[in-house]
Amino acid sequence: MHFTSERRLDDGVLAREFTLGEIPGTLWTPESVAPVPLILMAHNNGLPKGEARLVARARKTAAYGFAVASIDAAGCGDRPRSAADERARADLRRAMRAGEPVDEIFESFVGPLVEHAAPEWRTTLDALLALPGIAGPVGYSGWTALGIRLAVTEPRITAAGLFAGGYVPRAQRAEARQVTVPLLFLLQWDDEGNPRQRALDLFDAFGAKEKTLHANLGGHTGTPWFELEDSNRFFRRHLT
Asked: What is the pTM of this model?
């Protein structure tokens, strides 16, 4: 892991850009002399680690006392996308404009994103936990499809906060029954891109004995900011 820049922000959080092979990432850490727990924070369906809402969440979470890391995994952010990904994105835009069914297009697009992203997140986790000042346990926050895969395949993740937005491939819907870590599931009731009943069915399928659903009125990007405070309290219960 090679750090390429470092900035002390006005909230006391230290933001450091890094590269790990071909993987670019950002690490936010609080002012602390003791090792702190780590939260992996991923945005939905290929949006970049520098997206404004993710950065705001990361900074507030780091100020709360956690190390927070985000990466641009394969096909995400500014990283190169395959010709198949570009075709799927174009087909998706065309189908949505035409009001056509989009499930199979999402499947062909989001499924490979998850398959390629999960190994890079695990590689990043290995490197982050080797740094001084960062310790387990580890939490995950963000993109539901990737969170399911990591919660099932990465035993170091001990709690997960998932946003019920975007398409969840069939493989991850099946894997949901294997998710047994404590879970906080955020649902926007009027999310135009996420059928409500499908999200409720997914919540029901999770195998966790402790799982909580928070539902709020509004569209996809309308999650109230007070949910971030609740999420931080959730992680504090399970990571400290």
From this structure: 0.93
